[in-house]
Amino acid sequence: MLRNTPQSLLPIASALPALVTFLLLTGCSGQGSPGTEGTAKPQAPPSDPVRERLTSLTLDQKLGQLLIAGIDGDRITGDMESLIKNDDAGGIIFYKDNLKSPAQALQLFNALKEANKGSSVPLWLSLDEEGGRVSRMPGELVKMPSARTIGLTDNRDASYGVGRALGGELSAFGLNLNFAPVLDVNSNPNNPVIGDRSFGADAAVVGRNGTAELQGLQSQGVIPVVKHFPGHGDTSVDSHIGLPVLQHDLTRLRSLELKPFAEAIRGGADAVMVAHILLPKLDPENPASFSKPVITDLLRKELGFGGVVMTDDLTMGAVVKKYELGEAAVRSLEAGGDVLLVGHGYDLERQALQAVKEAVRSGRLTERRIDESVYRILQLKAKYKLTDEPKGQVEIARVNEALKQAVQGLKS
């Protein structure tokens, strides 16, 4: 080993083995042997409150968190109370016929929170409050203009102001999740379902204003759910009635439809709703809402989305006219989705839960797969500090003034 070492360095080279042994025994810092003050103590792993909450839940409680359910009528029913107390439903969605007046709506929201008091996980209370023709809040409240009107203004600050005002309105009532903004590019003027719900036909305008609005909602503690991934703007069939089919490949989607969603994800989107549209060039068998190539490969892997993925309403014609609802629910979870939205019918809501439960019992779905989704759900609820504390009387005049100012901001 010392054959080619210069004569002047031989003493140093000969001493190297002893020096290495000394350093190994004393520690490289030279501050003593293992167990002395110079040795760094192992750090305890940081606690994860979300993981702790997850492990405290039974399997049935976890499965309940996967469901956002609709409610019949304008007051809490025995069926809905059972769905919350016995089936641990994770959230409720409200439609126009559920909300008759500000006082009635507040009473309903508080009653549902009270029904959930036995759960360790607070409810999502949600609706579609987009502005324009899609508005669920009672008539006494000022309505926001359509997304098209906002897109024509194309003022990022004004769009943020609209989101902030909407978030303030919903938060005042105790609502915490809004299925908006719409990020579909309105590329087909004959589209029967999107139209002025879109910010426009330019993907950059849609992405810019949609992302600003979602950030405004977030500023008020309301979770925005961007929709309808991967893009519903070029369809000619209303998915409420039938299943739209789009012959777009990935090149086309990347060049137009996906751009607003990519921008929103970069801008902090926490939740994405996936549409009931069939894209045969990506998946010839399953609509996007329960397609692994769309949810896992495209949304999660390519766009890097790690948040909560929700289906569009599984009771829509696009699903129930072609698929059994329970099977669609299971397929959505298999594909990488997290939340099953079942907006109408107690029997259908129970059917979705039962199908998922049977899939776990049979081994088709593993509890580990369920845990992945429930962890994301609990993490999002914790991020926004959701609670089931009731809200007091809402100052309608103050809420309306903020909404009016947001509308005025679009004109200035």
From TrEMBL:
It comes from Paenibacillus gyeongsangnamensis. GO terms for molecular function: beta-N-acetylhexosaminidase activity. The gene is nagZ. The keyword DNA-binding does not apply. Belongs to the glycosyl hydrolase 3 family. Residues 58-380 form the Glycoside hydrolase family 3 N-terminal domain. The lineage of its organism: Bacteria, Bacillati, Bacillota, Bacilli, Bacillales. Residues 31-50 are annotated as: Disordered. Keywords: Glycosidase, Hydrolase. InterPro entries: GH (IPR017853), Glyco_hydro_3_AS (IPR019800), Glyco_hydro_3_N (IPR001764), Glyco_hydro_3_N_sf (IPR036962), NagZ_Beta-hexosaminidase (IPR050226). Its EC number is 3.2.1.52. SUPFAM superfamilies: (Trans)glycosidases. Transmembrane segments: none annotated. NCBIfam families: PRK05337.1 (NF003740). This is beta-N-acetylhexosaminidase. It catalyses: Hydrolysis of terminal non-reducing N-acetyl-D-hexosamine residues in N-acetyl-beta-D-hexosaminides.
